[in-house]
Amino acid sequence: MLQKVVRSTVIDAPIERVWEVLRDFNSHDQWHDVVAASRIENGEASSQVGCVRNFTLKDGNHIREQLLTLSDTEYKSTYCIVEATVPLQRYVATVTLKPVTDGDRTFWHWESTFATPPGMERELRDMVAQGVYEAGFENLRRHLDAGVAARTRPTEHTTQPVGRVREATPAIPSREVRLTRYGGAEELETVDATAPAPQPGEVRIRQRAIGVNYFDIYLRRGWIPGLLPLPGVLGMEAAGTVIDVGEGTGGLLPGDRVAYLCPEPGAYRSVRTLPARHVLRLPQGVDEETAAALLLKGLTADYLLRDLGHVDKGTRLLVHAAAGGVGSLVCAWARHLGATVVGTVSSEAKARIARDRGCDHVIVARDYRFADAVRAHCGGADVIVDGLGVAAVDENLAAADRRCHWISLGQASGPLPPLDADRLVMKSMTFSRPVVFDFVATPAELQERAGRVWAALAAGVLPRPAPELFALAAAGQAHQRLESRESTGALVLVA
Ligand SMILES: NC(=O)c1ccc[n+]([C@@H]2O[C@H](COP(=O)([O-])OP(=O)(O)OC[C@H]3O[C@@H](n4cnc5c(N)ncnc54)[C@H](OP(=O)(O)O)[C@@H]3O)[C@@H](O)[C@H]2O)c1
């Protein structure tokens, strides 16, 4: 006969706070006392329906559970045991949250059905009801309180150098992709490491998804050694869940789902401690993989189009690598703004993607010869978004119309040589050499720009990314893929 266990409680925290923790299928080792370790198998995201989490319990038992449903609108998830060393059979559980209307509190309902071997019904019912559910209620309360304490008791913390959360968790294990010698993708090596407890102004994040950017390749090759002394860890952006916080972290709390971009590299790791000023809470509906695929590239598209290109109706915009990570976002957003978008790509397959992303005209040219075609399509470019570098210099100058603004944001084909300013005077051109971090230099600016990116995603202006996923340990393969000119859209490492 199937057993049924039902428990419920009220948590003194808003439903969004409680749901941020519970929706993360891989968070229990951060708050539930019975769980010693949790990991998601096969590098899948913890919000991916079908993913399997692998628990090691403090009593030595192991349980593998699969996420069956996850609804951010109903605040509800269902999961089942697929394998366990405890004799719970056909176990299916549902977690449901409801807002409590008087006060900003949350009603939490947890129920399950399961079968047991004969004679063990009562023992296993008690274990689930008390050991898992009732203990879980108390553990989550404590977890949320610890976050509030870390945020709201600065005077207490000035006499005690670290907050409650940090005292409980000093340096914790992490995996990182380390570079000990500049060079090719084969130089990337995955090793064990630790992430220190957060100091004042810092936050420690369990990272789920890490954005791969062409900039990482420049650093790996040793083009900017001052920014990445060796041994070093690459990576400028990631998304995950806050483990704990230091003092003065602007309201971030353990359990918050967050993303960041940080001007100091170091994102290719499973746990990272970094300054909280670079970190944003993720809105509902933006999962970690989407954030890692979109944040740095979307912010780049925002400043390129708004601040530098002043792109609007009728602007003739030339976008190189139009099916790439940044390029495809720039094309989609520019098309929405009413620009005439001309894209360059290196293959017919990429041309189809670029058209789909919003290019009015696509030029297929692997040899960087595009200027004649640009002039034929639109008479010349008003703005050029150029991540190509050395191989495209002469053609960019030829493709430009009078008063064109040439934005050189990257150098995938090789470093840009010094530019003779007299080459610009022939068409009264202007030139910029921007870096995204200067356009999100303050938390307020970061919030504002990110807000536009999430809004553009929600409105369908930006396509929902479908990033190519690689395990963290396969970072070298991700680099090879990006350098091969075969990739389209974004690449993301899953920790
Ligand atoms: N300054 C900033 O703030 C900022 C921020 C983000 C990105 N960026 C720059 O924007 C550019 C795009 O970055 P991303 O991460 O989105 O990369 P991506 O565009 O997805 O990949 C690079 C693309 O560059 C093209 N490419 C042309 N010649 C190449 C070569 N010799 N080797 C490799 N690729 C070549 C390829 O597209 P085709 O084969 O279709 O030509 C390739 O797919 C990069 O230059 C990057 O440095 C700058």
TL;DR?
With 495 residues, the chain is an alpha+beta fold. The chain has 14 helices and 23 strands.
Question: What does this entry look like structurally?
Answer:
With 495 residues, this protein is α+β, with helices and mostly antiparallel strands. The protein folds into three domains: 3-152, Alpha-D-Glucose-1,6-Bisphosphate, Chain A, domain 4 (2-Layer Sandwich); 164-295 and 442-459 and 467-494, Alpha-Beta Complex (Quinone Oxidoreductase, Chain A, domain 1), CATH 3.90.180; 313-433, NAD(P)-binding Rossmann-like Domain (Rossmann fold, 3-Layer(aba) Sandwich), CATH 3.40.50. Helix content is 31%, strand content 31%. It has helices at residues 15-22, 28-31, 121-152, 154-159, 164-168, 214-221, 288-308, 325-337, 348-357, 371-378, 393-399, 422-425, 443-458, 475-483, and strands at residues 3-11, 35-40, 52-57, 62-71, 76-84, 89-100, 105-115, 172-179, 188-195, 202-212, 232-233, 237-245, 257-261, 271-275, 279-281, 316-319, 340-345, 361-364, 381-386, 400-408, 430-432, 468-471, 491-494. The strands form four sheets. It has a seven-stranded antiparallel β-sheet with strand order 1-7-6-5-4-3-2. Strands 10, 12, 13, 14, 15, 22 and 23 form a seven-stranded mixed β-sheet that branches. A six-stranded parallel β-sheet has the order 18-17-16-19-20-21, with helices on both faces. The longest helix is centred in the first third of the chain and has 32 residues, at 121-152. The chain is elongated, with a radius of gyration of 25 Å. The two termini are 40 Å apart. The protein binds NADP nicotinamide-adenine-dinucleotide phosphate. NADP nicotinamide-adenine-dinucleotide phosphate binds next to helix 6, helix 7, helix 8 and helix 14. NADP nicotinamide-adenine-dinucleotide phosphate is lined by residues 213-215, 297, 300, 321, 323-327, 345-346, 350, 387-388, 409-413, 434-436, 482-483, 485, 487.
